Amino acid sequence: MSNTRVALVTGGTRGIGLGIAKKLANKGFNLVITGRRSHDEAEPTIAQLREQFSDRSLKVQYCQADVADASHRERVLTDVEATFGQLDILVNNAGIAPTVRADILEASEKSFDELISTNLKGPYFLTQAAANWMIRLQEQSKEHRCIINIGSVSATVASVNRGDYCITKAGIAMATMLWATKLTRYGIGVYEVRPGIIETDMTKGVRSKYDSLIEGDLLLEKRWGTPDDIGIAVAMLTSGDLPYSPGAVLTIDGGLTVRRL
Ligand code: NDP
After folding, report:
1. 3-state secondary structure 121-160
2. Which residues fall within 8 angstroms of residue 136, CB to CB, at 6 or more apart?
């Protein structure tokens, strides 16, 4: 097993996932990044990462894989094993918002199924497969291995124009607790990072709406969150600097969910 640790980040070529990938590269991780886009489409970003961190001679590999598809998930882990022979960190970041924000009185089952497959079933079963492998690796050498789920404040904040999304994130919150319950005994950390409103492609369609909410009193820190904010939290968790905290949830939301009177 190599001394250079290996992190798998799903959906890591843009948005929050790219923010996480950069912070992990900065910490010296070899990276496997997944996404739906083709190798050709992802290559400029992957090349940029390699270039940016060239002084560390890190390996950055892209794997085109739909997290909702079982055979793709299997292929990702086979690729990681073939290239690196180890997996230290899994970041379940890939996710989608509904194509149309529809009121729960009208929203379609199709959207519900898509969101459940990508945001909940995919990471849940990728975790299952990765966890089985990590348990075997822990038996060979005890390291700070961990699994980090990117949840959302939508796990507890109800938005009736994207109920399907909220339900997937509430499910991720429970998945974090379940996997922490199962994996802590093996020395594998399981955590959730719970972002608030982050400036990415996912939120670009609602930018002006959130601009005015942020201008008002929605947040304690009056600014959009950035992918870097989330990357910093994930990188901290990979250090093992948060002892005695199985299933910990780090809420990175500028104070959105702080109750006020
Ligand atoms: P973006 O839309 O900017 O990026 C989404 C990423 O996920 C892309 O890399 C995309 O890959 C990948 N992805 C989407 N579907 C799949 C799939 N089926 N299989 C593999 N990869 C997939 O979103 P964000 O960066 O904003 O969101 C990242 C995560 O953070 C999501 O889980 C989201 O729910 C969560 N989040 C976001 C918030 C925000 O305000 N932006 C707030 C709270 C949580 P590709 O580029 O190839 O399409």
Report:
1. HHHHHHHHHHHHHHHHHHHHCCCCEEEEEECCHHHCCCCC
2. none
Measured from the Cα of 15, ligand 1's closest atom is 25
Cβ–ligand 1 contact at 68 (below 6 Å): yes
Q: Is 165 a catalytic residue?
A: yes
**pLDDT tens by residue, 110-131:** 999 999 999 999 999 999 999 9
Cβ neighbour number for residue 155 with a 10 Å cutoff: 21
Q: How far is the CA of 219 from the centre of ligand 1 (A)?
A: 22
Q: In angstroms, rounded to a whole number, what is the distance separating the alpha carbons of residues 200 and 195?
A: 12
Domains of the chain as residue ranges with CATH: 6-251 (3.40.50.720)
**Ligand 1: residue whose CA is nearest its atom 11:** 35
Q: What's the 231 CA to ligand 1 centre distance in angstroms?
A: 14
pLDDT, one tens digit per residue, over 66-101 is 999 999 999 999 999 999 999 999 999 999 999 999
Q: Using CA atoms, how far apart are residues 223 and 174, in angstroms rounded to an integer?
A: 29
Ligand 1 proximity of 200 Cβ (cutoff 6 Å): yes
Which ligand 1 atom sits closest to the C-alpha of 119? 32
Count how many residues are written for the chain: 261
Characterize the bridge pairing of strands 249-252 and 30-35.
Answer: unpaired
